[in-house]
């Protein structure tokens, strides 16, 4: 299962980085585009770590935290998809 998750993650992130480098090359530069992406990813990881620590410290079971994060991510992706279609 972990091998599949890693492989599918790679299938997602490699083309995404290539797209960002190609589009960023014409605007801010490929390196700057990747740097901004990495900053966003690291901020999101720190935020999720903080939220996870808070949830566990107040007694929410780990499975509940995982399901809650999954629901939040699904709602966020749906909202971004709807917002993107309206633009």
TrEMBL record:
<protein>
    <submittedName>
        <fullName>MFS transporter</fullName>
    </submittedName>
</protein>
<feature type="transmembrane region" description="Helical">
    <location>
        <begin position="51"/>
        <end position="83"/>
    </location>
</feature>
<keyword id="KW-0472">Membrane</keyword>
<keyword id="KW-1133">Transmembrane helix</keyword>
<keyword id="KW-0812">Transmembrane</keyword>
């Amino acid at each position: 299962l972990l091998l599949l998750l890693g492989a599918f993650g790679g299938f997602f992130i490699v083309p995404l980085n290539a797209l960002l480098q190609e589009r960023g090359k014409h605007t801010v530069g490929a390196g700057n585009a990747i740097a901004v992406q990495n900053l966003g990813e690291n901020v999101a990881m720190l935020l999720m770590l903080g939220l996870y620590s808070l949830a566990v410290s107040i007694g929410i079971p780990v499975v509940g935290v995982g399901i809650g994060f999954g629901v939040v991510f699904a709602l966020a992706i749906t909202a971004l998809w709807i917002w993107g279609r309206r633009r």
